[in-house]
Amino acid sequence: MSKVKVSTQTVIKQVERYLMGNYKRLPIVIVRGEGCWIWDAEGKKYLDMFPGWAVSGLGHCHPRVVKAICDQAKTLIHVANVPFYSVPQADLAELLSTHSFGGKVFFCNSGAEANEGAIKLARLATNPGRGKIVTFFNSFHGRTLATVTATAQPKYQAGFEPLPPGFEYCPLNDLSALKKAVDDKTSAVMLEPIQGEGGINIADDDYLRDVRRLCDNRGVKLIFDEVQTGMGRTGEWFGYQLSGVVPDIMTLAKALGGGVAIGAMVAKAELADKLVPGTHASTFGGNALAAAAGIAVFEAVEKEHLLENTKKQSKHAFERLAELKAKHTVIKEIRGKGLMIGIELAKPGAGVVSRCLDKGVYINCTHDCVLRFMPPMIVTKAQIDQGIDALDEALTEEFGG
Ligand code: PLP
């Protein structure tokens, strides 16, 4: 039943009655999005500097994505992967392969599912006897049982025991710890080039080169979880391109579908060929509608020069944020790449987020003290300024000058 006008309180009551309570939400109902803007049911407009939890990398309802979805919906929405081929899936796989390291693609529906696939593929390639996956403290790889175990943060695991065996954790950027963890039982090392949920922690280029060498020497697969860093977020198509360290497997989701659910695992061809019929599958994986949206994302980034814009706006944002750091002693560090920016505070940041919202600007806080400023790739200089001006005021109100 479609409703013309909704009331915030009605929706909240409905959600409380009919939805499970696993999401902590603000009393705001979003009813429309366009570009960098979202509107709530009361008509308030917000500048969205964290659109869709890094999903809406092109902003909301990008016209190319909207058109591609509408056109595709009239032609073919879904066809099963067995026994048929479909055109958009083939085209999107080619785009992913040719824009990265020439591998082959498996499509699924989410980041967790892409990472599950990567873990399975690595084990398939290295078993029998080598099933251990080494991951990193403060990582985030998803909420399925295997990926939440790969996510080395106890707060996400508590209560879900027994967790699947075969995972070991290391501190990021510590090569000697990794050397100890990687042994003759190890199948793969899995990491985010920049940890997102864990607080925007960057894996150093030199460290990544050493990790690659270690994996090569010990016959271990290297998996990069690019669910958050992929599709242009860092100013390159994929985060690995910042360091030039090429993984054996790369996982993607979030921004890949411009808002439509799609995930992907890209693997070097010799590894990918292990996934023969019967080994792995996903009913919806890479269906025509989602793949058409993904193709539109590639077109938008290329035709609208959005990698260039990401780099340009990133430079401006980092300059403005450096001014803020000089002014607000509560800011400990500003770090990130492209438009994946973390502002680490000496104190919890939740109050700053809600003050920004009052001013009509939405940003995120992760890991208690790290504000995340991740505008879409279409963002303008004026919008960056508006977001940072609001943050400046919010920091003053919350912590003083
Ligand atoms: N990997 C990374 C790096 C993520 O940031 C996330 C989600 O935030 C995931 C995996 C899980 O993705 P999804 O929620 O689509 O399963």
The biggest sheet amounts to: 7 strands, mixed
Number of helices: 14
Tell me the strand order in the biggest sheet. 4-12-11-10-7-5-6
Bound molecules: pyridoxal-5'-phosphate
Q: What overall geometry do the principal axes of the alpha carbons give?
A: globular
Provide the β-strand percentage band.
Answer: 15-25%
Low-confidence stretches: none
DSSP, total strands: 17
Distance between the termini: 50 Å
Radius of gyration, in angstroms, nearest whole number: 21 Å
Average pLDDT over all residues = 97
> Percent of residues in helical segments?
25-40%
Structural class: alpha/beta
Question: How would you characterize this protein structure?
Answer:
It is a single chain. Strand 10, helix 9 (240-243) and strand 11 form a beta-alpha-beta unit. The mean pLDDT is 97. Helix 3 (87-99) crosses helix 11 (288-303) and helix 12 (306-327) runs parallel beside helix 14. The chain is built from 14 helices and 17 strands. The strands form 4 sheets. Strands 4-12-11-10-7-5-6 form a 7-stranded mixed sheet, with helices on both faces. The termini are far apart. 39% of the residues lie in helices and 18% in strands. It is of the alpha/beta class. Pyridoxal-5'-phosphate is lined by residues 110-112, 115, 140-142, 192, 196-197, 225, 227-228, 253.
